[in-house]
Design a protein that fits this description.
Length: 172
């Protein structure tokens, strides 16, 4: 019995291969990394991006950040390489860099590597923070909140002081 894809879609048995990425986001200033998982609609804006591109952090839920794509691996563990164009997997002769560490000087080998474009077959994407949000704005907001709290405290203290005064003094 054979089925056509349109029949399977109509019956609801066909599940589209939705993108699902594990993002490893590194902070060069602190040296720490965090893992973020993106699925379905949240992952779509990354498809078609290349290694080296700088993207807005709102895609990952980090507003105000600028993030650079540095690499990744596909579903079979083959690393992405910036000098292989497209989203293809190729066997390439390499001498150094991502995907190969030579044991001897001048050694080259043919290795299976993935291109520099993010596709649905990519599982892990490595990124680093290039620019953080401006801290001054946050500090200013915090100072304003402190000032407001102090003003409210002063008003409450004045109101409490007036209530404690004897009745004869209140009339003045």
């Amino acid at each position: 019995m054979s089925f056509h894809i349109s029949q399977l879609k109509a019956e609801g048995e066909f599940k589209a291969n939705m993108a699902k990425f594990k993002i490893v986001l590194s902070d060069p200033e602190t040296g720490k990394a965090q893992k973020i998982e993106l699925e379905e609609a949240r992952a779509v804006p990354l498809i078609g991006r290349k290694i080296g591109e700088i993207i807005d952090g709102t895609i990952l839920g980090l507003s105000g950040y600028k993030i650079q794509i540095t690499g990744g691996t596909d579903k079979d563990g083959f690393p992405m390489r910036p000098d292989i164009h497209g989203g293809v997997r190729r066997r390439v002769i390499v001498g150094s860099g991502p995907g190969f560490k030579p044991k001897r000087k001048g050694e080259r080998r043919r290795k299976m590597l993935r291109g520099n474009v993010i596709t649905e077959e990519i599982v892990q994407i490595n990124m680093k923070i290039v620019e953080k949000p401006k801290v001054k704005a946050k500090k200013e907001k915090a100072e304003e909140k402190k000032e407001e709290k102090e003003e409210k405290k002063e008003e409450k203290e004045e109101a409490a002081a007036e209530e404690k005064k004897p009745e004869g003094e209140k009339a003045e």
